Amino acid sequence: MPKKFAPRKSVAQVEEGAELAPKFDEHGLIPVVTTDFASGELLMHAYMNTEALDKTITTGEAHYYSRSRETLWHKGATSGLVQKVRELLIDDDQDCVWLRVDVTGGASCHVGYRSCFYRRVTLGTKAGGKGAIKLEFTTTEKVFDPAAVYGNAPNPTKL
Questions:
Q1: For every one of its 159 residues, what pLDDT tens digit does the chain have, with 9 covering 90 and above?
Q2: Which residues, including other chains, have CB under 8 Å from residue 122's CB and lie 6 or more apart?
Q3: Residues 7, 62, 16, CA angle at the centre, nearest 5°?
Q4: Can you tell me whether residue 44 is helix, strand or coil?
Q5: Residue 45: closest CA among 54, 60, 34, 29
Q6: Between the N and C ends of the chain, which has fewer C-beta atoms within 10 Å?
Q7: Do the beta carbons of residue 110 and residue 95 sit within 8 Å?
Q8: What is the pTM of this model?
Q9: Sign of the torsion formed by the C-alpha atoms of 55, 57, 58 and 60
């Protein structure tokens, strides 16, 4: 781990201490939720490895680890939709990060929507029935055209 991250010594140190001692999973990753600083809107969920967390802290811009591409990812490096970190919080047992950001360009989703959470699942008895559960779009307007920004390359996300 970078020298900035303290070793995890005790529950008291992790939960009540003043040192950053993040807990990365068996793949070396920690989950991150990212919200808009002003509105609180949930923009995305991703992961960081030690390098991404270190670069985010150092630069003040969001860096993540792409599991599908298996590489460090500076949010907005290709699209220009940079996330400027206004606040970085860590949960009580230091195994989850919350970024509160301002988004240059107004979008965070590589599909073109403002937020990666643009569909909802019907709950309750309406969700029952036969076949696949249907999704309802909560927004239909894209902030940008992904083909214009990323080109016609296939989506690098593994299914």
A1: 556 899 999 999 999 999 999 999 999 999 999 999 999 999 999 999 999 999 999 999 999 999 999 999 999 998 889 999 999 999 999 999 999 999 988 888 887 888 887 888 877 666 566 777 777 888 888 988 888 888 865 555 554
A2: 133, 134, 136
A3: 35
A4: strand
A5: 34
A6: C
A7: no
A8: 0.83
A9: positive
Rounded distance, CA 124 to CA 50, Å? 40
Cβ atoms of 141 and 158 within 8 Å: the answer is no
C-alpha dist (Å) from residue 10 to 17, 52, 128: 10, 25, 46
Indicate the Cα dihedral angle 98, 144, 69, 104, nearest 10°: -40
Q: State the Cα–Cα distance between residues 61 and 106, nearest whole angstrom.
A: 15
